[in-house]
Amino acid sequence: MDLGLNGRRAAVAAASGGLGLGSARALLAEGARVAICGRDEARITAAAAELGPDAHPIVADVGTPEGATAFVAAARAALGGVDVLVTNAGGPPPGGFAATPVDAYRAALDLNLMSTVAMCHAAVPEMRERGWGRIVAITSVAVRQPNPNLILSNTARAGATAFLKTLAREVAADGVTVNSLQPGLHATDRLRQLWDGDLEAAAREVPTRTTGSPEDFGAFVAYLCSRQAAFVTGASIQVDGGQYAGLL
């Protein structure tokens, strides 16, 4: 199936590994040109070399609104514009209510909420003017079913989901779709960190008895960026192997 992404220009945040890298790889496979960012110059340069000549590495820290805005500006300069934006960032430190000081929430909100807001503010006006755009945010299934001991991530990502839903309704008539994907337990460095490297134990928490693949996740991102997905907007879709147990 031709997803209509050939020649499109995509900015994928936090893509030196994991779900960001899987998303960039899938978009490139569909003919898009991609700008990817990461904080570590060596890692993001290596990732771009692995992806090929249509991947442009950018050193940027999207953990602050300023860094997030700078990434979109750099992606626009590298690609000549941004048609597709995939927002993504690492996760804040684990911890529950009693162990998490009030001051810790500000950094978590910058990382997982304000970075998304800033990237959208930087990219959406151009998309609206052109009459076409795709935004896909990588959040977490914790938005639906909060994870124990991850109060910072649960809080910030829920706020991002509300922002994205509101934005989707405002820009839908301009040909811009806004959706979020909610990953569960995928085989990423973040999961290995949270589970002390024991992915088999993590897999036992999933009905499929497997952890997710960044490559399969990336394929879903690419579909939401496609011309065929033009009527899908404002959606928050879990990609979690059936882990979420709720009805809605």
TrEMBL record:
Keywords: Oxidoreductase. SUPFAM superfamilies: NAD(P)-binding Rossmann-fold domains (SSF51735). InterPro entries: NAD(P)-bd_dom_sf, SDR, SDR_fam. GO terms for molecular function: 3-oxoacyl-[acyl-carrier-protein] reductase (NADPH) activity. It is an enzyme of class 1 (oxidoreductase). The keyword Oxidoreductase applies. Its EC number is 1.1.1.100. It comes from the Bacteria. The keyword Translocase does not apply. Belongs to the short-chain dehydrogenases/reductases (SDR) family. This is 3-oxoacyl-[acyl-carrier-protein] reductase FabG. It comes from Actinomadura rubteroloni.
